[in-house]
Design brief:
With 257 residues, this protein is α/β, with parallel strands linked by helices. It is 40% helix and 15% strand. The radius of gyration is 17 Å and the shape is globular. The structure holds 2-phosphoglycolic acid (PGA).
């Protein structure tokens, strides 16, 4: 983490779990368990139907809520889609784009990730852009090349000022939901490379300002070591964000330096 130059962010990704009625008790429990004077940004990215209940539950708290996907389109005949303007209207602060589950099961392409990120930025919502290699790519030593490609594709056509408002999440696919976390060294290495790609595309000042998160089986036990790495500015947390105690421990770990 490097608080001097960038925001530390702990973002939960509930995926397709829980109900709107779970929002209030969850937030109450989380608030009781987490440090009162936390300095990191805390976000819960929840399914669309849970957003209004989250908004109510988080009123007067310093927790933010987010979404997990957004339409590429602004409005119109796109049955089932949710636009960036609709999210902004509900005061959604963050939205995940390009999660590997959406790339894998819903055909989300690199160009769609780019369009979605821009649509969010236009509405003042911060995109959390996910990138990460498969196990096969890692074994073939293609990680650096592939992740650099994904980052460049996601940021294509954005100017420096816009990129500064993006968050990148490095999530190796083989570590997601598997209980197999990347080692702190592996995660740091790729997050450092991602910062290098941003530096190459823009400049050192911009690269220094972008928060880069690690995701993939981050939990209460392994978070401290991951968060201690200089280029890891927080976490995108799936499984462990469903339990208030575990999520609160991860938030607390950002305060221990
Ligand atoms: P996990 O999920 O923490 O359950 O591995 C992370 C993610 O998919 O964002």
């Amino acid at each position: 983490m490097n608080r001097k130059y960038r925001k530390v962010i702990i973002a939960g990704n509930w995926k397709m779990n829980k109900l709107a009625t779970d929002a209030k008790p969850f937030v109450e429990e989380l608030r009781a368990a987490m440090p009162k004077d936390k300095t990191c940004e805390t976000v819960l990215c929840v399914p669309f139907p849970i957003i209004p209940a989250m908004a109510r539950a988080m009123r007067d708290s310093r927790i933010a809520y987010g979404a997990q996907d957004v339409s590429e389109h602004a409005s119109g005949a796109y049955t089932g889609e949710v636009s960036a303007a609709m999210l902004a209207n509900l005061k959604v602060k963050y939205c995940i784009v390009g999660h590997s589950e959406r790339r894998q099961y819903h055909g989300e392409t690199d160009s769609a990730v780019n369009v979605k990120a821009k649509a969010l930025l236009d509405e003042g919502v911060t995109p959390i852009i996910c990138v990460g290699e498969s196990l096969e790519q890692r074994e073939k030593e293609l990680t650096s090349e592939f992740v650099a490609y994904q980052v460049k594709a996601a940021l294509a056509g954005m100017d420096a000022k816009t990129v500064k408002r993006c968050v990148i999440a490095y999530e190796p696919i083989w570590a997601i939901g598997t209980g197999r976390t990347a080692s702190a060294e592996q995660a740091q290495e790729v997050c450092h490379e991602i910062r290098g790609v941003i530096r190459e595309l823009y400049d050192a000042r911009i690269a220094r300002a972008v928060s880069i998160l690690y995701g993939g089986s981050m939990n209460a036990k392994n978070c401290a070591e991951l968060l201690a790495q200089p280029d890891i500015d927080g976490g995108l947390i799936g499984g462990a964000s469903l339990k208030t105690e575990d999520f609160a421990k991860i938030i607390s770990a950002t305060e221990e330096e």
